[in-house]
User: Fold this.
Amino acid sequence: MTSGAGTAGGGTLSISSGASTVGAGGVVEISTPTSSTGDTGSICFTSGTAESGNSGNVTICAGGSEVGAAGAISLVAGESTSDAGGDLRVAGGTVSLTGGAAPGGVTGSLSCATAIAEGNSGDLSLITGDAVGGIAGSITITTGAFSHRDPGY
Assistant:
């Protein structure tokens, strides 16, 4: 599937499932087939390279909710029964991991953990990058402040 090309701008490609006024909406699934004798294919979401401007963003968003819980995003590396599990890498200029906001409720949690293993479990490291000719970054761990709100009694 491709959208139209143009000299002033490319077309838009939209993939969506059916809407529902009462129940759940449809599902959009993108997958590579299972392979019994070799490697399976890869899935890559990539924005194009810009020769004289900013390249496009790749954004994955879960839906919000007016009444119930907002949707979740799960990035899960594959498991293996005979070898190491897949890696999950997040890299970029600035990488931010933030629990979800909830003005009227409880904000989301942020957890970093290594998985349970029958052998050795993985390491958990917080490391700032080396600085050549400058100051290396620091690691700061801070808990939120407690404030008591008057419930209006």
Remarks:
- The chain has a mean pLDDT of 78.
